[in-house]
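Today's session is about reading a structure prediction critically. Students often jump straight to the picture, but the first step is always the sequence itself: look for stretches that repeat, for charged clusters, for runs of hydrophobic residues. Only then move on to the predicted structure, which in these notes is written as discrete structure tokens rather than atom positions. Here is the chain we will use throughout the hour.
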Amino acid sequence: MFSKESSLVHSYKHGFNGFSAFLTEAEADSIAKLPGVVKVFRSKKLSLHTTRSWDFLDSFSGGPHIQLNSSSGSDVIVGVLDTGVWPESKSFDDAGMGPVPKRWKGVCDNSKITNHSHTIRCNKKIIGARSYGHSEVGSLYQNARDEEGHGTHTASTIAGSLVKDATFLTTLGKGVARGGHPSARLAIYRVCTPECESDNILAAFDDAIHDGVDILSLSLGGDPTGYDGDSISIGAFHAMQKGIFVSCSAGNGGPGFQTIENSAPWILTVGASTIDRKFSVDIKLGNSKTVQGIAMNPRRADISTLILGGDASSRSDRIGQASLCAGRFLDGKKVKGKIVLCKYSPGVASSSAIQRHLKELGASGVILGIENTTEAVSFLDLAGAAVTGSALDEINAYLKNSRNTTATISPAHTIIQTTPAPIIADFSSRGPDITNDGILKPDLVAPGADILAAWSPEQPINDYGKPMYTDFNIISGTSMACPHASAAAAFVKSRHPSWSPAAIKSALMTTARFLDNTKSPIKDYDGEEASPFVMGAGQIDPVAALSPGLVYDISPDEYTKFLCTMNYTRDQLELMTGKNLSCAPLDSYLDLNYPSIVVPIAQFGGPNSTKAVVNRKVTNVGAGKSVYNISVEAPAGVTVAVFPPQLRFKSVFQVLSFQIQFTVDSSKFEWGYGTLTWKSEKHSVRSVFILGLN
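Below is the predicted structure for this chain, in token form.
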């Protein structure tokens, strides 16, 4: 049946039934027609989406969310699907940890190793390590050892042990590095070598389900597709059915809308925000004024002539291109020995490419003028900084109004407790979700800008010149936000081991912070108030999530009914659930018991005054006898009625239902958002809603 070129790659047998193999198009078509075959789809390449962050989150709750020398939560196992791990990092020291949980079935796989110095020796912190994929042919290591750095970074963010005096480039971010749940165990699944193949990801899900993980963290993703065509969505559904919580990065497609990835409702989708720390660079101008830039810059540029990139153009008709300091449009003679102010356009050239080009031309430094930025640019090859706002205006005014302009660039220094924080990172992907207009994504945000964590010493941190290596690196992305949320989920799981994945997600979402450290609404990167499209429910608060009061729970059967409501066929359902089921849909796809609410305008009826009804139910996980009253904040032109407006619970785990009726005056309203909050004497259970997407 198979050609000589075909070969089996993976056989999935624990969480779901199936296999991956090299096949010709004809073979794939032939297999798709066989009885019992639900679907055949091509394996796709997915993309990888960093001391202070946990202290910042704790500052909202008045203290640390962990007892640093406590073994609380040591039985929680977090699986990390990424580029692997560097096990010798101090962040994975297992000193003081108890025995590995007896339920653990995983392995520390070194079966492909021929050089024993590459062997991964698991301990009580890293209790399992597997590697996958035919891409390993081009990989230095044939096990789960990390040569990229990304997986080491995310794993240590989740559960890294305490490391004193951790720093980037000897001074930046110096402090105690730790994961969000240091007592948790780590199981490493190297699925990116460096490509992240979807068939490898499914194999890792399959093994992780068998091994006995409690949480799965994936800082990777791909272009959105239907749930049944996405390996992460399929794997996560099977994991959820086994009680495993799955957390994924939202993607780095921002600030554009409809860029969200990993948007299945059974996944926690995590966007990125800033923390209250910045790496400040003093730029002293020749007029004795000093402006502040932002950069990870270990270098100094002594007093030098300051020029605009456009003034160093090699051709009079290429001044615009020269102002961007990209390509071959700069005259080396005009640049040599000078500090150059460049307009920064990431779509034209990266900051590292600009540094490399200017260094080759003999420049002494570079200043990148950026409209908005929420992360520090690395200047590892040439002294420099990024400037925005009034600082950029000050430099431009000096250049315009002065002769013989000069500047000095100092090495960066660390400033903490900056305000406002958090701010939503500009790169963080945003909704609405093009896969399903009835689900709000991202679910929430977590620190993802300029995060310091452990790094692989195999991966240089610079792109040009003599390679620079470090044990800790500072990087940004929703890849860094996801492990913060994964650690928070592990923290909640350690205190509430019987809670379902949906209950944990609900606790994280309904207790999320929506105010920054100035007690103002959290802002987007451009200074505007962040909408739920941008930040979901808000910023995670691990301590508050321990005691949410009420949770919006969802069973695997209800997720299946949701898929039926989305008109999934029996074959599609079998692929997602692993079961041959008949469809029993919800009354409406809006009635999935999600902690947030989206009502597209198409769901309203009537030409003028329009109405829509949504149903929800909550489970009491607080005091046995408790009373909650509804509080509503609605945009202009919208009336919200909740029936009943009061919920009276008689016991723990009692479930009560309620209905929300939205009435919209379409002559005054296009779209908007608000909140529904159930309030008791001890708890506020907050849900965000958005109306009128299309």
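Discussion point for the tutorial: The longest helix spans residues 478-495.
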